[in-house]
Amino acid sequence: MTTEIKHPLSLRGLYQYHDVIGLLSAAGPGFSGPVSVVTGPDGNLWVANRANPNQPEAVRITRCTKDGDFIDHFGEWGEEPGQFIWVTSIAFSSQGELFLADENNHRITVFGPDNRFVRSFGGHGNSPGKFDRPS
After folding, report:
1. Which of 13, 35, 59, 116 is within CB 3.0–4.6 Å of 77 for a Cys-Cys bond?
2. Tens-digit pLDDT profile for residues 91-125
3. Would you call 57 helix, strand, or coil by DSSP?
4. In 15-69, at which residue ranges do the beta strands (DSSP E only) sit?
5. Does residue 27 form part of some domain?
6. Does residue 4 register a pLDDT over 70?
């Protein structure tokens, strides 16, 4: 079945529904509150999941193939370095580092190609180098 969606700002004006991947899952394979997806340097999809304090295990970055096959996930809910609470977007640098904008922690957190915490910057405020709910 093909569903066509017209969008007034589209350059082509026509999108076709192709497929759905993933399952609803608070932990492990699947997604819970997916908010941002990027294609990583490895060609796979990286999905930022966020949740509320009642479901901290759902806060994670999930990696899967473009066909939706689960590869792995990482992340931990919290305020400590390397932890995140309310991810709003993710992006990769040209060096393969993954940048996460964490709205609740008012910072950008960076992970290396091995998914290990590298650094974070920002913090709440309106002075240079600070953020107020980055997205």
Report:
1. 59
2. 999 999 999 999 999 999 999 999 999 999 998 98
3. helix
4. 15-16, 34-39, 45-49, 60-64
5. yes
6. no
